[in-house]
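## Example pair
The file below holds two records. Each record gives the amino-acid sequence first, followed by its structure token line.
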Amino acid sequence: MKKLMSPIMYDLAKQLNLGNPAAVTLFLESIKKQETPIVETCPIDDEYHLVTYIWLGDEQTENAYVFGSFPGWDLTANEMNKLLHTNIWFKTFRTKDKFASTYYFSINDDFEQDWVKRSENYKRDPLNSKIFGHKAGPISVFELGLSSQIDKTKQQTHIPKGKVETHQFHSSILKNERQLWIYTPHNYSPEQAPYDLLIMFDGSSMLQTLSAAATLDHLIHTKEIPPCILIGIDHVDRFTELTFYEEMNMFLTKELLPWLQQRYHVNANPYHITIGGFSLGGLAAFYTALRYPDLFGNVLSMSGSVHWKNEDYAESHPWIENQFKRSSTLPLQIYMSAGELENKPLLEANRKLSEVLKEKEYQSTYVEFPGGHDELWWHRQFAQGLVSLQQFKIPMK
């Protein structure tokens, strides 16, 4: 198969081969003005776009990769090419999708399959001014075929702001200590009506990366949701704690909930208690609500890893799907979402689970968004999910 080539990059290479080094200067001026990635109509099929990522290296640059929901996470396919004798590295991808995605560069990458180490060294695109805020620094954002997805909740500085505190919580059940992130709304008072309660996994990511406090400030101010308290749970061993871990459920029900109900003026009615998370956090939210629907009446799952199989489970259908299929309909309201660019097992499992929930006549909403396993979309889906769940709760007393 002939290597994919951007017409712009092809012309630049052609000029360099003809001995015209000034072409590089003109190219750099152009991309700094137009920004990157470069988007072109595919010359052989105008239904497709060619998307070219650019990294400007130096003499020490030995390799460069680009990763994200788009263009994906494949080490071979995502390795960039060096343009002749220049320090320009590029990679072109073909797509006819419309999407929004964050993306990262990995430079002088020798991490092989160590994605944790790789993620610690990601770099943003200095040629792209569109970014999404992140606790470790801003992430580059690329949108193709969509109107601007910039979130307005971050721009409204005039609205009343809630308070965010942290608390070190020791668990006798889990035999460890973890940090909790606690959001209370503006003018919180125990003299008011009991507050709705949100319990979210991956607390530091929810509050720092996904700007959950700003989202709640906005939704409460616009009266799209009632004033609420959010508890974000940090994890000691995320993989263990969020994959069918009954000790985590014991911690939630025997320690955390009683502590919260004693310390804060929260509504004990399960219709007013939401548990949620993204990725494995979405899986854990389903698992907890499935076990304790008398305590947690709402589930908010964003790109939930519902394809995950329990250790001793041999059936072909995902475990969570099977549990909902076999059980009687529980008193749960559910909002779940997944991206069109997710990996195939996760996306198909979310689709199948949503079908099962409809068949079982759950009050549920399933949304597919034009993106992937991406903080950019989880930030947006958190707000959309809360508003959707509130619609279910309106007739509830």
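Second record, same layout:
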Amino acid sequence: MKKIILGLLVIFLLIFMYMSLVGDENKGSLTPNLISRIKYLETDSVAGGTFREYGQEAKSVFEKLSSHKDVVTKKDFLKRKFFEESSQRDIEFVLDDGKKIKFKVLFFSMKPYFDEAYVQRIGDDSIYHLNKEEATDIATQFANR
């Protein structure tokens, strides 16, 4: 019995070590030269289907989403997500080599303008705060699309 438990413990330890070494493919650092490599962004359309934005507009959105520094706790994020009026949008950026960088953006208080938003890059545990101006700029690019 001890050998079985020891064997399972070793297996779980090896799996944990593998997962921590390999990590998530999206977990790379966001460098300034990524902005020039963005081909387009993709997001769900409110009318159904997929909305794509090319060129400078996509680069502008990426720059706004990736330049924030104010970290939010997971507790605050979940509390606001479930107890306040909010809207979530997934935004995926496609680079010139086909790699994708994905963000989840949660917008709050949608009348008449967005008050603020929280943004999280898929593969990163940190959640960041966007102020009213940044949130409104990003949200209006996707309004009614």
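Notes on the second record: The beta strands are 38-44, 50-54, 71-72, 86-95, 100-108, 116-121, 127-130. Residues 23-27 have pLDDT under 50 and may be disordered.
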